[in-house]
Design brief:
The protein has three helices and no strands. It is mainly alpha-helical and about 100 residues long. It has one domain.
C-alpha cells in the first residue's frame, strides 16, 4: 500500500513537471512572436520562475543530446523519459499489491 501511495505522489510530480514544460514551450512561442513582452514584470517573473524550476532538470538532458541547431528537443525527451519513469513506477506498485 505504501508503494502505491508513493507511485501516486511521483505521478502527481511528473504531471506538474510536464505541465511546466508545456507552459515554458507556449511562453517561449509567445515571447518569440512578440505576443507577450518581457518588459512586463509579471511575464518576466513567470518566465524566470519556470526556467529556474526546469533548467536543473533540462540541462543534463541537453548535455547528453547532440546539438540540433535552433531546435531544442530536450523538453520532448524529458516528457518521454518522465512517462517511461511513471510506467515503471506504476508497474512496480501494481506488482506489490
Amino acid at each position: 500500500m505504501l508503494l502505491f501511495t508513493l507511485a501516486q505522489i511521483i505521478g502527481y510530480l511528473v504531471q506538474i513537471i510536464i505541465f511546466l514544460v508545456i507552459a515554458q514551450f507556449v511562453m517561449s512561442l509567445l515571447i518569440s512572436f512578440n505576443v507577450v513582452n518581457m518588459h512586463n514584470d509579471f511575464v518576466a517573473a513567470i518566465w524566470k520562475a519556470i526556467n529556474a524550476i526546469l533548467d536543473p532538470i533540462l540541462n543534463p538532458v541537453r548535455r547528453i543530446m547532440p546539438n540540433t541547431g535552433a531546435i531544442d528537443f530536450s523538453p520532448m525527451v524529458l516528457i518521454v523519459g518522465l512517462n517511461i519513469l511513471l510506467i515503471i513506477v506504476n508497474s512496480m506498485a501494481a506488482s506489490s499489491l
